[in-house]
Amino acid sequence: MAADAILPLPLPGVDDPAEDELVRAALAGDPQGWARLIERHNHRVVVSLLGRGLGIDRARELAQETWLRLIERHRAGRLEALVLPGLAVVQAGFLAANERRREPSAGAVDDQVAAPGGTALERAIDRQELDRVSRALRECPPAARRVFEFVYDHPELSYAEVAARLGLSSQRVKQIVCEVRRRLRDSLAEGER
User: Fold this and answer.
1) Nearest to 95 by CA among 84, 82, 107
2) 105-117 exposure pattern, b = at least 16 Cβ within 10 A, e = fewer
3) What is the pLDDT of residues 17-29, one digit of tens each?
4) Which is more confident, 126 or 15?
């Protein structure tokens, strides 16, 4: 068979009437709609987490947490559209990154999986940069660190929504995020000197 005769497999969710119907059902609050969407897309979410270096058991746990968070956001009225599997993959990525930030060694199978490609020296340099950034974040005042982590734990929220939840002005939230980012950039720049 010639290479140009191979037809691509249709992607779930791309011009797929069945997918559209499931999304409508899920957004209407139908638990069966959610269950079928999860069944349809969970494998891609797990694979995306495996690609980030998580072990299979932890990837499955985080995938489950991803779906729970999406359902909670929908129930709270903060989820107006479902573009799957993209939204779930992004949410799972945030959960994995957050977990790594709290425990840098959590979930990594080994250095080759955690940092695919590159030489051992490049991986060591990446690890040193990560250590510097982690240390800089730990040195931030606890209140600033909490605000910064909350913003990155909830990328779906605007600064105004974060401010309302934390009892701050949106200007103060922006200021804190900018200050923490500057500290993190400065810590990286110090390592380059």
Assistant:
1) 107
2) eebbeeeeebbee
3) 788 898 888 888 8
4) 126
